[in-house]
User: Fold histidine kinase from Scleromatobacter humisilvae.
Amino acid sequence: MRPDHRSARRPWRDSDWCRWDAGASEPRRGSDKGASRRELRWRRRAAWELMHYRRHHQGRSLGGNLLAMFIVASLLSILLAALVLETAFNWHRSMALSHALSEQVDWIESHLAFDAAGTPVALREPPDTAWVYTAATRDWKYRVVDGRGVAVLSSDTGAPPFAPTPADAARERFDVVVDGLPLHVVSKALTHAGHRYVVQAAISDRAAALFSGAIVGPILQNALLIAAVSLLLFAFGIHGSLRHFLLPLRRASEAASRIAPRNLETRLSEAAMPRELRPLIRAFNEALDRLQQGYRVQQEFLASAAHELKTPLALIRGQVELSESADRELLLGDIDRMARQVAQLLHLAEVSEARNFQMAETDLGGVAGEAVAFLQRLAQRGNVHLDLRLADALPARRADRGAVFVLLKNLIENALQHSPSGAVVTVDVRANGLSVRDEGDGIPPEHLPELFKRFWRGAARRDTGAGLGLAICHEIALAHGWSLVARNGTTGAEFLVSFDAS
Assistant:
């Protein structure tokens, strides 16, 4: 029992998705409403299957994926570095604030003026810093407190000393609120002339933030700018590196795309490949070895089978010719068609192998004349005129004379088969190509892509061939590096062979 190949189809194309009777206009069972619901479910499921297939089978760029991965990793690294820097700056700002206040306390201590009793009476401020405690009285403050807890000297006359909440005389650093303004305070004990004092320096929270922003802000901005430029340069560098590293893979892909049945002996080189890609290239070359061997066996079998069939067909024809059977002519016609198909199979096997061609300087005009003379009787039977046109001073071309004869013979024979009585088939040979033009009905546009496929036969063909003649022509043109195309002219079809295929 042969396997059911429907299971290999895409699910949204399978015939089981739409269960309708072939000869009925109504669904097989159920009401119209139920059938509509089932059809809607089938369509939704088919759409989901199609979306799932496309999502998992769309091509992905290795270079693009790697570049995106590196960029995402770089962005995450920059964000992490920014968080670390922000934390470090916040910590450093707090430490710098405490250090600055401690230095301010030391500065105040060193600039205190005492009276004869050893009591602080003034702060000897240099002219360049005298403005600090007078211009910014709310943001910069100091106190000198005696052992009784009384402020004997202050930037604010009569102001009480700074005291933490809850009260703790041993605390050296604390925050207070004065007149609704948060202050950071640092205290330091001082002994002078046997008297103990406490020097306090304070700065408002807004002043600390202002000075910190003036210092830290530009640093952060410069760091972000450097990070953005570095990321951009990094992305360009990675992109260029990926293009350089993937260049051998692209070259291997281009070389693989040029491998065809005619050059199956070509192999991809592992020399310039990265070490990680060499197993893939090696496996691909081994697959080509197996493919080449299978293709060679197939071609040899085809040629052997066609060759072995020639002798039995000749013997059968001889027996039929000697017989007195009433349907002898019918049998001879069948045998001739079989012999023709066998000959075409043999030609196809031969032209599919480049080693079977014997290239030499060839007079294409002379070959065209031989092909026209060979088919003259066939043209006369169909009342079709063959018109051979040769350009002046045709140069000789390097080609296989026998293969070119088969190419022209098949093209002319195809034109004769599709030409009505009284028509003209024109064979035109020029320096850069040749063409065969008939005056038939032309080629349906949907059939043009199928013409040169093996065993393809149009629905309106008049002959009983196997559909190999044009395929043989295509193989011969490829072997010579020529191009063969078909098109519809003003009257009938035209087959053009261009010698400059590149």
